[in-house]
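Following up on my earlier message about NAI. Here are the inputs again, as you asked, copied directly from the submission form:
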Amino acid sequence: MAKNVDATARIKKIAPHQIPYSTILRLTQYLRVVEKIDELGVRNISSAELSEETLINSFLVRKDLSYFGEFGVRGVGYEVPILRRELKKILGVSTRHKTVLVGAGNLGRALVQYQGFYERGFEITAIFDSSPDKIGTKIQEFTVESVFTLEDYIVKNPDITIGIIAVPAANAQFIANLLVANNIKGILSFAPLTLQIPDDVVYATADLTTHLEIISYYLTHPDARKTFEVRI
Ligand code: NAI
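Thanks, got it. Here's what our run produced:
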């Protein structure tokens, strides 16, 4: 009988502020898998299958998903469309985030051309640079705009929530200050330094070197792989 229970009815109210950061990192991995299998028309997934797909220990999978309430059904697992919807809701990607990108160099150009951001709910709406060689050039459908117009653009488009920084380290704080002063509440910086960002702004850095160093650590210490549960 439990197998026919409408899982929606069993979802408890969640307390997003109580979810640990390590769980949030894994939720993005679950969402990736769940979106893929949902597109394939798969209706249910068990924690063991989710564990196999993500290489995350099945105990952790069950623990992580328990933060949403008891909506898995014993013997059946999780209903894929519901799990997808709930993961998107908790990650805040049910609605699209509009994003500006500053720095149209090698990295900036690659980021703009990456379709995955859009597919996962992040829409780059404009790209800015300070170099006369870059301003006015095209990257796909975008024309690179002068960084001097960045402030004006954000003010006229209050639905922009995230700024991506892909400028050299020496100029990154200046750009961050500009974004913060214009009410941007989320900053992703690729510049290799820690920026001074107020507490009410969500700030993340992306550094591929860190991942290479982690890989290097596990290559150097093979025994440590026994405790390596989460993919990076
Ligand atoms: P790049 O030199 O090709 O491009 C930087 C761009 O920023 C240039 O077009 C330049 O005109 C522009 N720029 C400089 N000052 C600016 C300002 N004040 N306002 C607007 N635009 C400005 O450099 P690349 O290779 O694209 O790297 C960009 C940044 O990303 C650097 O900080 C680099 O260290 C970092 N990076 C980080 C990686 C990571 O894994 N986190 C990987 C690759 C790069």
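One observation from looking it over: The first helix runs from residue 21 to 39. Hope that helps, and feel free to reply on this thread.
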